[in-house]
């Protein structure tokens, strides 16, 4: 396994989010972390991306403790799409995407041929090539998220972590971004994403990690682990599991308070 | 960024959460307010008694009730009493102005000094005094009003410019920047004439010594008008705290409330600055301290602020006279020294990170 | 963006940025020449050139070499230092108003300087006092804003708070001093270039030479940090280290500049933004900001000397006017 954390104690200031957490990301998987609000899923992702230093335990990347590796070296193997990034005033799409090449650059090697190819490819595969000269401020939410994704892609890392990549997007753009992620996964990358929507998680994940109160309740192939009992246990929600008519993956249908609609 | 974030920054205020109305709490708060008034009266007497020549409290009472024309009584009646009255009025005005601004802009950092409003008023006064030679406070206070109103509008426009809208940090920076321009302009005008500079440099630092002894009396009508207007706005501001739409649906005239609040703030800041120079942080620190025990209800917050702000201002003034006796540290400096730590504490709070 | 490649090396340059930089150099040289040649005695420009090389008439050498040249050079280097300092701190705070003027650093320098002025210190003591004051206030701000790391918004707010206290202390010192000391300290805190000699210019020039490489090193990570700390960390940047280096560099530049000329306000705020708008780059750029700062300050100083001649205004009043105009401009621009 290239990326895993063992015995992690995670905390913000005094508030401990998780203790003794072991989390492993299978190579080549599209792993989705899911759970109710404040279950520690984003915190776990941030720890895996070395954004948050664990109070105890360690995250390992390719056999070494991640904090012992040079940060730029890590950035060439593992990319992160943070939940909130700031768009500098007046920056163009091409400029923003090309900033993803930072870990591959030096003071005297600011723009190699590889940089150019990587940026072009990243923009191509996220479909933002036509927007290259537009200002990022002017774009719609969905377009903007694709630009950020392109920037993370331009980093050309085999592992890519995504912190709630679909928040603030409407349903069509959510699917668009997730389809794009699925494509990236098929091209051979390992993807880890934090998502809110359980149905979307089941549909796209090859490996699902279900968390509650800072611990992992279940993990594995969504078709095997997602049951009505699990949803009840994790989300306190009574539901029925049916088969997604499109993808054949589990689909959660919350229980109605009344079985049938009262006649008008 | 979101208004919800700003609301969160105020302790004890949760969107959609209405505190249960308990008679016990109201009684306790009323008693507290009375106690605050008591402290204020006591501090007023102490403020009159303490100075380069301290007198016993009994002499103060005598001087007020039965003046006998002695030196002590004259000093008390002609110098100390006006000064203390000025402290009362200015303190109440700035505290209330700060509370009103925080409520109106839903910005926890709003303060008449920080947002440059007091410096705008000070520039107005300087123009009137230094360039036009007007020396009647009741006349030049109108220049202070103009300066205060102008800088309030400018600070808000500058602070909310740009894509991200008005965030507390942007607004604070815009206010500080404007304040520096106004201050530079005011000092440039003052420096043209050494005599004016010498007389006004104390005022420009913020001082209760007052350019003229009768200034408290001359400016009293404006201060009182501002205080009454501000206190009357408690109800509508409560409704507006939930957002403009919520306020509107509760039947509050949103536009009218804003304009009236702005008028009250201008009156309070303009008159206070004309009297005592540009002061910082009283309007920031006191409402925040008060909010910790009254919660966000303006009907308690505003009266408490009006009572406790002069306590802080008079206290600072007395302290400034005691530590530097026989001279004094101007109250403007004391306010910055007392208030800035509160501001810094506020800045260190994690909650603000959400803004 | 054009790319220059040579073997394994490559550098990215914006043609417009280069054109703007070249134009600013031309303007800077032109304004400097005007400042050197005009005044109470006009020295023709050829005479300036000869006197710089020690071949001129004694009168020209005295006026240009002793009086005007040090003043112009001090203006240039101080302006450049303020411009750079502003560029670094604005980038760090992600805010066009996040310049040392408003973060308490300039105020700290003033306090140090005034302390030296009112205690009758020499020019060197005043310079040392303001440098110390600047560094001390920066340490205080950084320390108070530190809470398991420093976030930009907290740096701004704490800076404002500390600045307010220090400004009050300045005014306290001014009101306690006798009126003559107070008047001269009053001129000093407005910022002035009058009577500046080579011993003012040289320390600033040395600081610029020493710190320019640091600026070059941190400029790219700083640009990444404009997108947020997480994004920068993900790209492999040691955010806290870069931030500390940036604060130290910005503070030192601001400190030495203030030591030489007093706290000239608003140059550090306006220069990076004007440069940025002219070269149409996203975010501030270091070199252009330094050039713009130099041009702004010598121009403002020339205007302060000539506009109301024979009355000589302190340059700080001119820059405050420029700052005010710029704020209004910014307002109009962003309101659109």
From TrEMBL, chain A:
Gene3D superfamilies xref list: P-loop containing nucleotide triphosphate hydrolases (3.40.50.300)
Keyword Secreted in record: no
CDD domains tied to this protein: ABC_Iron-Siderophores_B12_Hemin
Keywords, alphabetical: ATP-binding, Cell membrane, Ion transport, Iron, Iron transport, Membrane, Nucleotide-binding, Transport
Gene Ontology CC annotations of this record: plasma membrane
Highest taxon of source: Bacteria
Membrane-protein topology: Peripheral membrane protein
InterPro entries recorded: AAA+_ATPase, ABC_transporter-like_ATP-bd, ABC_transporter-like_CS, P-loop_NTPase, Siderophore_ABC-ATPase
GO molecular-function term, one example from the UniProt record: ATP hydrolysis activity
SUPFAM superfamilies in the cross-refs: P-loop containing nucleoside triphosphate hydrolases
Keyword Magnesium: no
Main location: membrane
Domain ABC transporter: 3-238
GO biological-process terms attached to the record: iron ion transport
Compartments, record wording: Cell membrane
A Pfam family this chain is assigned to: ABC_tran
Protein name as annotated: ABC transporter
From TrEMBL, chain B:
Subcellular location: Cell membrane
Keyword set includes Transmembrane helix: yes
An annotated GO cellular component: plasma membrane
Family matches, as Gene3D superfamilies: ABC transporter involved in vitamin B12 uptake, BtuC
Region (Disordered): 1-22
Pfam family, one: FecCD
Family assignment from sequence similarity: Belongs to the binding-protein-dependent transport system permease family. FecCD subfamily.
Protein name stated in the entry: Iron ABC transporter permease
TrEMBL record, chain C:
Annotated GO MF terms: transmembrane transporter activity
Residues that span the membrane, as ranges: 17-36, 72-90, 102-119, 126-146, 152-174, 201-222, 242-271, 283-305, 311-331
Membrane topology, as annotated: Multi-pass membrane protein
Alphabetically ordered keywords of this record: Cell membrane, Membrane, Transmembrane, Transmembrane helix, Transport
Compartment annotation: Cell membrane
CDD domains: TM_ABC_iron-siderophores_like
Source species, domain of life: Bacteria
A single GO BP: siderophore-iron import into cell
Stored InterPro entries: ABC_BtuC-like, ABC_transptr_permease_BtuC
Any single GO CC term annotated in Swiss-Prot or TrEMBL for this entry: plasma membrane
Pfam families in UniProt: FecCD (PF01032)
Assigned protein family: Belongs to the binding-protein-dependent transport system permease family. FecCD subfamily.
Protein's recorded name: ABC transporter permease
Organism: Planobispora rosea
């Amino acid at each position: 396994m290239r990326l895993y954390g063992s015995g992690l104690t995670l905390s913000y200031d005094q508030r401990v989010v998780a203790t003794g957490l072991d989390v492993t990301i299978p190579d080549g998987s599209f792993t989705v972390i899911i759970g109710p609000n404040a279950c520690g899923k984003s915190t776990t992702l941030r720890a895996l991306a070395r954004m948050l230093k664990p109070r105890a335990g360690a995250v390992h990347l390719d056999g070494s403790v991640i904090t012992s590796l040079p940060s730029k070296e890590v950035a060439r193997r593992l990319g992160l799409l943070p939940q909130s990034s700031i768009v500098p005033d007046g920056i163009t799409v091409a400029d923003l995407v090309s900033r993803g090449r930072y870990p591959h650059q030096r003071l005297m090697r600011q723009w190699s041929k590889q940089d150019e190819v990587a940026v072009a490819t990243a923009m191509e595969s996220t479909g933002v090539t036509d927007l290259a000269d537009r200002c990022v401020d002017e774009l719609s939410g969905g377009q903007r998220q694709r630009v950020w994704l392109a920037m993370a892609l331009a980093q050309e890392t085999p592992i890519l972590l995504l912190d709630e990549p679909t928040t603030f997007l409407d349903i069509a753009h959510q699917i668009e971004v997730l389809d794009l992620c699925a494509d990236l996964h098929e091209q051979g990358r390992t993807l880890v994403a934090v998502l809110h929507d359980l149905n979307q998680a089941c549909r796209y994940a090859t490996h699902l990690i279900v968390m509650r109160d800072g611990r992992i309740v279940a993990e594995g192939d969504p078709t095997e682990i997602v049951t009505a009992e699990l949803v009840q246990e994790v989300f306190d929600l009574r539901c029925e599991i049916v088969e997604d008519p499109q993808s054949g993956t589990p689909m959660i249908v919350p229980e109605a308070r009344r079985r049938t609609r009262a006649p008008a | 960024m979101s208004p919800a974030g700003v609301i969160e920054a105020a302790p004890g205020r949760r969107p959609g959460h209405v505190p249960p109305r308990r008679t016990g709490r109201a009684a306790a708060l009323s008693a507290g307010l009375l106690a605050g008034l008591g402290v204020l009266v006591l501090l007023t007497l102490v403020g009159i008694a303490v100075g380069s020549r301290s007198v016993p409290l009994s002499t103060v009472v005598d001087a007020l009730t039965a003046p006998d024309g002695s030196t002590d009584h004259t000093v008390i009646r002609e110098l100390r009493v006006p000064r203390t009255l000025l402290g009362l009025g200015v303190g109440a005005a700035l505290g209330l102005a700060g509370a009103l601004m925080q409520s109106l802009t839903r910005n926890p950092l709003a303060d008449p000094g920080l947002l440059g409003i007091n410096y705008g008023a000070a520039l107005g006064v300087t123009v009137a005094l230094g360039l036009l030679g007007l020396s009647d406070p009741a006349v030049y206070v109108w220049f202070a009003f103009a300066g205060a109103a102008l800088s309030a509008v400018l600070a808000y426009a500058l602070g909310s410019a740009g894509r991200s809208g008005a965030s507390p940090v942007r607004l604070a920076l815009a206010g500080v920047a404007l304040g520096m321009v106004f201050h530079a302009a005011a000092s440039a005008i003052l420096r043209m004439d050494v005599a004016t500079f010498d007389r006004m440099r104390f005022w420009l630092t913020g001082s209760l010594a007052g350019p003229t002894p009768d200034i408290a009396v001359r400016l009293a009508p404006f201060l009182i008008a501002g205080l009454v207007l501000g206190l009357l706005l408690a109800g509508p501001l409560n409704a507006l705290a939930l957002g403009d739409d919520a306020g509107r649906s509760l039947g509050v005239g949103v536009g009218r409330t804003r304009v009236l609040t702005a008028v009250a703030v201008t009156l309070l800041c303009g008159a206070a600055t004309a009297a005592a120079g540009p002061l910082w942080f009283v309007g920031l620190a006191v409402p925040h301290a008060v909010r910790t025990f009254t919660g966000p209800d303006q009907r308690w917050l505003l009266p408490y602020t009006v009572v406790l702000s002069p306590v802080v201002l008079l206290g600072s003034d007395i302290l400034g006279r005691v530590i530097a006796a026989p001279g004094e540290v101007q109250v403007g400096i004391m306010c910055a020294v007392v208030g800035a730590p509160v501001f810094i504490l506020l800045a260190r709070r994690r909650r603000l990170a959400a803004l | 963006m054009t790319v220059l490649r040579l073997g394994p090396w490559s550098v990215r340059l914006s043609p417009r940025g280069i054109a703007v930089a070249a134009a600013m150099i031309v303007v800077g040289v032109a304004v400097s020449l005007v400042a050197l040649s005009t005044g109470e005695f006009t020295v023709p420009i050829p005479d300036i050139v000869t006197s710089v090389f020690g071949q001129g008439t004694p009168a020209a050498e005295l006026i240009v070499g002793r009086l005007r040249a040090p003043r112009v050079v001090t203006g240039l280097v101080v302006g450049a230092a303020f411009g750079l300092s502003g560029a670094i701190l604005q980038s760090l705070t992600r805010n066009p108003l996040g310049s040392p003027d408003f973060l308490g650093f300039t105020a700290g320098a003033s306090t140090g300087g005034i302390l030296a002025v009112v205690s009758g210190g020499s020019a060197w003591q005043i310079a040392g006092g303001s440098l110390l004051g600047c560094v001390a206030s920066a340490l205080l701000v950084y320390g108070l804003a530190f809470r398991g790391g420093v976030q930009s918004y907290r740096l701004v707010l704490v800076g404002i708070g500390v600045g307010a206290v220090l400004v009050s202390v300045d005014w306290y010192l001014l009101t306690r001093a006798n009126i003559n000391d107070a008047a001269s300290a009053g001129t000093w805190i407005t910022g002035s270039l009058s009577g500046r000699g080579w011993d003012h210019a040289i320390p600033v020039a040395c600081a610029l030479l020493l710190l320019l490489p640091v600026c070059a090193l941190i400029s790219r990570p700083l640009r990444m940090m404009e997108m947020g700390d997480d994004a920068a960390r993900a790209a492999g940047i040691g955010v806290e280290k870069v931030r500390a280096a940036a604060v130290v560099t910005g503070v030192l530049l601001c400190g030495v500049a203030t030591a030489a000329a007093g706290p000239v306000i608003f140059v550090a705020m306006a220069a990076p933004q004007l440069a940025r708008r002219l070269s149409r780059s996203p975010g501030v750029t270091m070199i252009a900001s330094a050039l713009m700062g130099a041009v702004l300050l010598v121009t403002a100083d020339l205007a302060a000397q000539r506009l109301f001649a024979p009355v000589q205004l302190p340059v700080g009043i001119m820059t405050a006017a420029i700052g005010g105009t710029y704020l209004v401009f910014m307002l109009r621009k962003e309101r659109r």
